[in-house]
Amino acid sequence: MFENFGKHIADIADVVCSYPLFFLLIGGGLYLFISSGAVSIRRLPASIRELRSKQGHGQHGQISSTQALLSVVAATIGLGNIAGVAIALVVGGPGAIFWMWVSALVGMATKYHEGALAVMYKGKDDQGNPRGGTMHIIEQGLGRKWTPLARFFAIAGMFGTLCIMNANQLTEAFMTTFTTPESVEASSFLSAVGSAVSLSNAQAYRLLFGCAVAVVVSLVIFGGIKRIANVASVLVPFMVGVYFLMVLYIILTNLHAVPSVFARIFSEAFNLQAGFGAFAGIAIIGARRAALVNDAGIGTATIMHGSSRNNNPVREGLVAMLGPAIDSGLVCTLTAVAILLCGNIDVEGVKGLEVAMRAFGNAIPGGTYMLMFIVICFALSSMFSYSYYGTSCATYLFGARRGRWFTYFFVATLVIFAIVPLEAAVGMCDLFYALMAIPTMISVILLSGRVRKATREFFTNRPKR
């Protein structure tokens, strides 16, 4: 049953997430990049200065701009940065990484607009609490007649922000690292659990692990946005730092092969020998995986940045655009280099975390277990932030009191998605992200002129440094 379901979902996702998603995210992002005067390049120094500056503390918000950024990064730096990159390499080859970089560059321009509009059009729930998100941007920025589009985003957002791939791949990684198929099949305890719920031993293992993950995540997310932001502020710098040191070790011990790795990325990104179709396929694969990694144009970042205490749209936009630079630019590159140096991407089927685990295991003594630790941190950090995204969408649709019930639904799905096949998990993630991107990119493009006006006024009136 799961296998047939996964195939159907993957087929639908392949249609929706190929050329339509590519032109929407990359084409729309390129328009925002050009119309904003290459904001992601020209304003990068200002963006870094803004992150280090003492940020304003307005009355309408719950967290600081830095906490908002780290919470967004906590969500985007997840298993997509490891498993997603591995999938892109397996399916599209090294050239797909180049298109992830392109997506990051234009994604920074998109995130700038998302962050600015999230503050420009903050909303409130029915209890008067400040809320942000694409749904509020559409309703306030474009007008009440656009409410159906805002509701469309909120509905897609409730399902798109479920941690489908994170729960699935974390379970897979833990299972393959600490057990063998023989030990699982021989376990009388798993047999008893499986018999009770009509599952195989392997599925029973996944079910139990999913329950354990749900318990850990519950300890954080039921504390609300402030607890999520506090955890992210500590966890994100730590996990990125440890991961950087691991990849740095791999690079230094294989320094002679690094130039050839980057040569492969660039040469295969523009490889037309197999025809234009193959070239377009590589570009689409890179953009599709990047959408899962940096969320630019998807709309999730607007929810978190809309909760910021910052009352200046441009300042928030400058902070927001650092997100894709960190996840798609830095972390994904680290993963790609490590896998291409020490891994094997010539495997059959859709393989993700398994490829990365083997690469790190080949390169570092105990690397498999070290990466497993990072994987747990990455996966959990995503789950913390994504629970708030989904709850915000549910709150917009059903009100604050009833919207809180979504948190319980979110926790329950962590158990369910621990069992589904990888193909189904990837397909569902891609499909819901594409549905969220439609209203987000429409609203951002239509309102981009107001962001440009605010940007000109901000930098014209800003004291020279």
What's the helix and strand layout?
Elements: H1 2-16, H2 19-35, H3 39-42, H4 44-52, H5 65-76, H6 83-92, H7 95-120, E1 123-124, E2 130-131, H8 134-142, H9 147-160, H10 164-178, H11 181-186, H12 188-197, H13 201-221, H14 224-253, H15 258-269, H16 276-294, H17 300-305, H18 313-320, H19 322-342, H20 353-363, H21 367-398, H22 400-403, H23 405-417, H24 422-446, H25 448-461
Antiparallel strand pairs: 1-2
Helix pairs in contact: 1-24, 2-7, 2-16, 2-24, 4-18, 5-14, 5-19, 5-21, 6-16, 6-20, 7-15, 7-16, 7-18, 7-19, 8-9, 8-24, 9-21, 9-24, 10-13, 10-21, 10-23, 10-24, 12-13, 13-21, 13-23, 14-19, 14-21, 19-20, 20-21, 21-23
- Assembly level: single chain
Beta-strand residue percentage: under 5%
Roughly how much helix do the residues carry, as a percent range? Answer: over 70%
Distance, first to last CA? 63 Å
Ranges where pLDDT stays below 50 over 5 or more residues in a row are 272-282
Mean pLDDT across every amino acid position: 79
Number of DSSP-assigned strands = 2
Q: Let me know the largest β-sheet.
A: 2 strands, antiparallel
Key structural traits:
single chain; about 475 residues; mainly alpha; two-stranded antiparallel sheet; about 0% strand
Kindly summarize this structure in a few lines.
The protein has helices spanning 2-16, 19-35, 39-42, 44-52, 65-76, 83-92, 95-120, 134-142, 147-160, 164-178, 181-186, 188-197, 201-221, 224-253, 258-269, 276-294, 300-305, 313-320, 322-342, 353-363, 367-398, 400-403, 405-417, 422-446, 448-461; strands at 123-124, 130-131. By secondary structure, the protein is mostly helical. Helix 8 (134-142) packs parallel to helix 24.
